[in-house]
Amino acid sequence: MTKLNDLLKNTGQWLKGTGANSDIVMSSRIRLARNLKKFPFTDWADKKNQRAVLEKIKKAIDKSSCFKKSLFLKLDELSNIDIQFLLERQLISRELAAKKGPRAVCISDKEVFSIMINEEDHLRLQIIQPGFDFSESWRLIDRIDDELSSNLGFAYSSKLGFLTACPTNTGTGMRASAMLHLPTLVINKRIEKILETITKLSFAARGLYGEGTEAAGNFFQISNQITLGRSETDIINDIKRIIKQVIDHERDSRIRLLKNNLLEVEDKICRAYGILKNARIISSGEAISLLSTLKLGVDLELVKSINRSLVNELFVLVQPAHLQKIEGRALTPEERDMKRAQLIRKRLK
Amino acid sequence: MTKLNDLLKNTGQWLKGTGANSDIVMSSRIRLARNLKKFPFTDWADKKNQRAVLEKIKKAIDKSSCFKKSLFLKLDELSNIDIQFLLERQLISRELAAKKGPRAVCISDKEVFSIMINEEDHLRLQIIQPGFDFSESWRLIDRIDDELSSNLGFAYSSKLGFLTACPTNTGTGMRASAMLHLPTLVINKRIEKILETITKLSFAARGLYGEGTEAAGNFFQISNQITLGRSETDIINDIKRIIKQVIDHERDSRIRLLKNNLLEVEDKICRAYGILKNARIISSGEAISLLSTLKLGVDLELVKSINRSLVNELFVLVQPAHLQKIEGRALTPEERDMKRAQLIRKRLK
Q1: What is the pTM (predicted TM-score) of this model?
Q2: Which of A322, A329, B92, B226 could covalently link to B86 via disulfide, CB atoms 3.0 to 4.6 Å apart?
Q3: Residues A278-295: tens digit of each pLDDT
Q4: What DSSP letter does each residue of B93-111 carry, written as one string?
């Protein structure tokens, strides 16, 4: 049986640094919000109902061919560190982590698919893949959605589409997002204007860790806001178009930077690499900032001795719960800063 | 014939990091101020007289056994970069560099002895050795002084001792100084109190590059102020005593720091090493500051992969004129910052 600690042996497939435009797009993600017919939405349901929903979905998952080697975790059986660990891996949302009561997550092999149960909606199905890839992801998640739908029966209105706890998700129930690494748009200060435009076009832009967090490490998550009145394919085509434009801006900035400030860029990258390889104490914030600079170096092929997946993985591994899981015990903030530096040194050797 | 550019092949003996207490004392130096009888002091003399003094001293040096493989340089035949280069190597003073008219420097093999001609006094004889060593230095310089004296006839009063252009040097004409690396007394802020005490006891404390410069790289040059009314041996014993106390304070601070803040110290040292090994652009100020931290690491045996002489040498090599001499051409400040980083990377490899 797969256990939570087995996740420690690897990192998610989405960190592998492969796929289209993977020098700029870390990962692409699609989430579908679904609810079971004849059950009240999670936040209106009592524990008994929530438990019934959870068990019903679990049974459907057990039958699914996509979740054969999967890991099923009930959150009220997990420690705070384990929950934080799942959050750091992008396998659950902050909302699911903060909730009480019967709730669960199911994680497929390589962490490509996951299902949150009793988050805001009964079921949130997610696919996350490396690089810029929505079409294939949509094909895959759509198949699982169909399979689960035929077993579970989702709340659906022929007029509105899928019914969801929050009206902002009604219709397709789909949220497509990509995690973009945009360091040079931050350096040349064009990022704000671009994010403003994105927002005007009814897309959302957030930092690495979702809602309400700063854009640490120059990562920006761009997602659709509109779920109603357009087909899934339309939404995907819209977001593909907008993300392609942001990619072009970042690529253009990188070319200019290399042309006009090669030495300064090399200096910044090499210093970041030097500090990461040598520090004995490092905070999470500093580590993420330096890793962002190092990632740019790797993606620009200025640093050739390490590969993209290694840097990508470090963004996840240096986080507090990961350090504590790796160490097998709770760590004070001071101990974490030391263990973080140790882990980075070891990996970059 | 030895040429100025031959100096580039090596660095001075005083940088070798050997000798007593060489983890704290970079070098010990003794300078003797001497003037020829029957010639006016340099600043009162016309060019003809200055030239006569220069030629007379040159002849005496040519006969001396200690200056057999020496380099004799007339400063008005040198470029500004060459003069700056000699200053950076501690072979001439700022005053000699800034002066006009016939003036020269003679440099012995390994740069242990040097003689400035027509600085403030006709002759300034210097010995500079690695580590904390005044007794042997005094023995050596005293012998050369005797030899030169018998050939030249120095201005001497049985009442006052050696006569000098400035009365503060009259008597022994001797200035003994040691260059101390005191990073932990700077960290724990005890340095100011110590320097204050030194000054009260009639000793002077200055930065790395002599009068009027900041204590860059945590180097402090401590020297006697009193030259009159005490014998050379008394003066040397006095300064040995005071320097021994400063050494004890620094050593005590180092032990405390290692005991109470080992990880922080290691972190600081390793980061400095990491930046020095990786930077592509580095200013003189930053380089000296990071090298000071690295030197502490080497002296505390926390960094074992490089030896003390290598770090000591870098303090001299990273200076502007050295970079330009090594490169064989004038460099803009931007080019120097790049070449400095390159040189440091190469040497630390």
Answers
A1: 0.91
A2: B92
A3: 999 999 999 999 999 999
A4: -HHHHH--SS-EEEE-GGG
